[in-house]
Design brief:
Blueprint (H helix, E strand, L loop, with lengths): L1 H6 L9 E7 L4 E6 L5 E6 L17 H4 L35 H15 L13 E3 L5 E5 L2 H6 L5 E7 L4 H5 L5 E8 L5 E8 L2 H13 L4 H6 L9 H10 L10
Antiparallel strand pairs: 1-2, 2-3, 4-5, 5-8, 6-7, 7-8
Length: about 250
């Protein structure tokens, strides 16, 4: 994504902290602290502040009802979306976690089923997430660092570039890759990360594989139609296993 932005003339400043800003009428001046500790100013048309979200839980009367909230204002709910007060349920951004519409939708379905008397709980192994940039970024499951933190000390990692993919070449859109992460001992598929055209559509297959407890070899053995972007998933799995035929095994 950074490479694409640079091609478009955008300057990407990493390890830089915004310190203050000044309103100059039709202009805005931002003061930043650079990696070396020095300060610099950026003269710009607009400043977009995007530093996270907080729950909109104020003025809902939750404190009056006795609903438990954490110190950040998120409502505390269990796997059935129940709060500590009988008959009051909570879903979505209000309870924290991954703040995604599709997560909230699933939680809402759980609430409806629980109220209807069915056995239901929010019990998922992974939730796919997408950043709709150009190229797109999609991820599901664990990153390398997260996998190691959870005790997967030895990993099998495969990365397949879209530049080696027939469909990407035919549509002249070769930016990006598919990265597959698996446990080296058990073969369990732990995470898949995709950057590139169509990443938002490709990631669902990977989420399903993780939910079903697939191993990396399951992705490799599943025949994908050619020429398609989805082949990159199969190819990345082959790289992870050292069985690639369209890129060099390392």
């Amino acid at each position: 994504v950074a490479r694409k932005l640079k091609k478009l003339g955008v300057e990407v400043m990493l390890d830089t902290k915004a310190k203050s800003w000044e309103d100059k009428g039709d202009r805005a001046v931002l003061t930043v602290e650079l990696k070396d500790g020095k300060t610099a100013t950026i003269d710009t048309d607009k400043i977009l502040m995007s530093i996270g979200r907080r729950p909109n839980s104020e003025n809902l009367g939750l404190d009056v009802a006795g609903v438990t909230m954490d110190k950040r204002g998120f409502v505390v709910a269990d796997d059935h979306q129940r709060t500590n007060v009988a008959g009051i349920y909570a879903i979505g951004d209000l309870i924290g976690g991954m703040m995604l519409a599709h997560k909230a939708t699933k939680e809402g379905e759980v609430v409806a089923e629980v109220i209807a008397g069915h056995k239901a709980a929010f019990d998922v192994r992974t939730i796919p997430a997408v950043v709709f940039t150009d190229p797109e970024i999609a991820t599901t499951g664990l990153t390398e660092d997260e996998a190691k933190e959870k005790g997967h000390t030895k990993l099998k990692i495969g990365k397949f570039p879209f530049a080696a993919l027939g469909r990407a070449l035919s549509v002249n859109d070769t930016d990006g890759f598919v990265k597959v992460i698996g446990d080296a001992k058990t073969g369990e598929l732990l995470g898949v990360h995709i950057v590139g055209n169509g990443a938002s559509d490709l990631i669902s297959e990977c989420a399903l594989a993780i939910e079903m407890g697939a191993v990396v070899d399951d992705l490799r053995l599943t025949i994908h139609p050619h020429p398609t972007l989805s082949e990159a998933i199969m190819e990345a799995a082959a790289v992870a296993l050292g069985e690639a035929i369209h890129v060099i095994n390392r």
